[in-house]
Structure formats: structure tokens, C-alpha cells
Amino acid sequence: MKRARPGAPPRGTGGRALTSVGAGAGFDERRSTDRADDRTTGSEPAMVREERTPSRLWHVTLSVSGGAIPLKEVRRGLEQLAHDHPFLLTSRYADDHAEIRYWEEARDLHDAAAVALRLWGEHRSTAKLPPWEIVGLEVIDRETYHQRVAEGYGPPPAAPVGVHPY
User: Fold this and answer.
1) Residues whose CB is less than 8 angstroms from the CB of residue 11 and which lie 6 or more positions away in sequence, other chains included
2) Which is nearest to 116 in space by CA: 35, 37, 53, 59?
3) Average pLDDT of adjacent 10-residue blocks, the chain of 166 residues
4) Could you report how far apart the first and last alpha carbons of the chain are, in Å?
């Protein structure tokens, strides 16, 4: 590690000026990407345009299953999970399995699925969830969800929001 006095240019820079770093897409659309006045040589690009995919809504159904647990404990754990994470729409449960349904905002299906697959394990101890394993996962985009519901073959709408027995 090299030491220098505060405000001194780093050794070996030959008096080069610092170039600005882009704040990301959408920060200030009026600013030009050609910032030649901020650099000393014409060969260094000042900003790189970042391709940003807008986030979308994904409907997630997570199914878990395992050994039988008293219904009161299962319900309490799911209610605690819903309280800690109010994005949960509905949960259905029995003594040996449960289903959690909610909307997730994510860039793509992979991101939404990754979050869903971590949900149960990461909150098992804080919400005192049963030690069950994930046995099913469905992630569909908003348009597909609404199309299925409209055609009558999709999951029933999450009308009763909350935690309910099967």
C-alpha cells in the first residue's frame, strides 16, 4: 500500500485528471455521453451506457412439504412469515404441507425464482417455520397469470388474503 499526502495526485499519473463515473441509466437523461471536457485524453470513454431491463411482476407459488407438525404451529409460523413480509398474498396449509402465493417484482424469471427458493430457508428460524423442504415452485409472469385466470384453468385468485387451512 502506497501512502501519499491528502489531495496529492497518485504517483505515476503524470497529472492526469480523473474522469467521471456514470450514475447509471436514467439518472440525468439531459447529460451527454460525450464528456470530452472532463478528460485529458480522447481515448478514454467517460461513461458507459448501462442496459437496464425494467422489472416486472411475477406470480410465485411455493410448495413445501415434510413430516407432520401440529396445525397450530404451522399456522403460527406462516402468520409470522406474512407479518414479517407483507408481500405474501395467501398461504394454505395442512399438517404436512403448505403453499405460499405472492407477487414478486424482479428483472426476470431467474431473479424471481432465486428469491422464492431462498424464502423458506432464510426465514425458517426467524418465523419458526416447520423444517420442511421445497417440493414445488411455479413462477409465471403477470400476463400469463391473468390469462389463466380469465380462461378458468389457472390458480384460483388469491381472494382470501391471509393464512388458511386447506
Assistant:
1) 2, 4
2) 59
3) 49 44 43 45 53 84 97 95 83 95 94 95 92 96 92 66 78
4) 63
